[in-house]
Amino acid sequence: MEKIFKVSEFNEFINVYLSSVGEVVVEGEISQINVSQGKWLFITIKDENSSVEVFGVADTLPNHSLLEEGMLVHIYGIPRLYQKTGRFSISAVQIVPAGEGALKISFEKLKAKLEKEGFFSESRKRPLPMFPQRIGLITAKNSQAYYDFIKVLKNRMGGIKIFFHPVSVQGRDSSISIIKAFDYFNSNFKDLDLLVLARGGGSLEDLQSFNTEEVARAIYASKFPVVCGVGHEKDVSIADMVCDLRASTPSNAAELIAEQKDYVMSKIAANFTYLYNVLNNLKDEKKHTVQKNVMLLENSLLAKEEKIRAKIKELSFQFEKFKLAVKHNISQVDDNLRLLRSLDYKNVLKRGFSITRTQEGDILRSAADALTNSIITTILFDGKITSRVNGFRGQVAK
């Protein structure tokens, strides 16, 4: 008996069948694009004969802002049938510009967007260490870029430790692979000197992984300085513009990171010679300064010595004058002492003289001053004699 489906059953059956097909890649030109409510993406793509609807969630397709009508794209997604209306579409998981024209348009739009956000500003670019010791390398395993970088680096300087993280550098998942490599180094290392992102040359489509917003933001957010050596010299990617230092090739990246050993040694020798000459000149200059200061000090000391000698001479002269004055004064004192001694009444008394005082203590200078019956005291050199006046020869006593 033939199977009869209800419409909803048929649509569900077809949808299950389509889902089993798995992911497909469809190339077409965008004829219409619309973002609903800021999150639902509706696109129509076409070729010369047909068109197909594409549905996507804007948050899962970060590059949707770079898309525009007329752009050739590759839609990665799963075919499905909307059960309610039976409308066929592709549920997009990734949309990639295809063809040189679309890639150039996408490149210029992303470049303008990131430049406006300051991703390319020279003020945020970090300098590289002069002699890096630990480097993280992000490139394809067993690629020519890997071998060229390692060969040039080893020929220039030794002692550099390289931590290699292989990635896919082309194809649908290459951007995710590169982003995971940056996450790995930034999460697991604390002391890397820098990161190197390298790839050989190729077409604009081959280098598309290095022109995505996700990779640009991974480079911008890296806590280690990033050197990009992507493509050939003429190739300039978004990654080149965001990184801290752009190299024209993987080999050039190694050249910019490490100097030639011979050049470094010659530079060290030249700097040593320069420093030797500077120090030698400085030594001679300081020696001359010291000699000049010593001479000035000697002259100053000689001048001070002359002043001291003159002062000592003057003091000696003043001292001699002082000595003579003291001697003269002492002589005068001796004369005065002799005079005083000669005037001492005791010495006079020793020569036979005496002093007589009245009872009132006055010196009796005249016999006429002695009152009869008055008491008088005669002072001799060796004692006193007390007498009563009875009379005297000469004038009558009072």
From TrEMBL:
Residues 120-333 form the Exonuclease VII large subunit C-terminal domain. CDD domains: ExoVII_LU_OBF. Its EC number is 3.1.11.6. InterPro entries: Exonuc_VII_L (IPR003753), Exonuc_VII_lsu_C (IPR020579), OB-fold_nuc-bd_dom (IPR025824). Residues 5-95 form the OB-fold nucleic acid binding domain. Keywords: Cytoplasm, Exonuclease, Hydrolase, Nuclease. The keyword Nuclease applies. The keyword Hydrolase applies. GO terms for biological process: DNA catabolic process. Pfam families: Exonuc_VII_L (PF02601), tRNA_anti_2 (PF13742). It is found in: Cytoplasm. GO terms for cellular component: cytoplasm; exodeoxyribonuclease VII complex. Heterooligomer composed of large and small subunits. Bidirectionally degrades single-stranded DNA into large acid-insoluble oligonucleotides, which are then degraded further into small acid-soluble oligonucleotides. This is Exodeoxyribonuclease 7 large subunit.
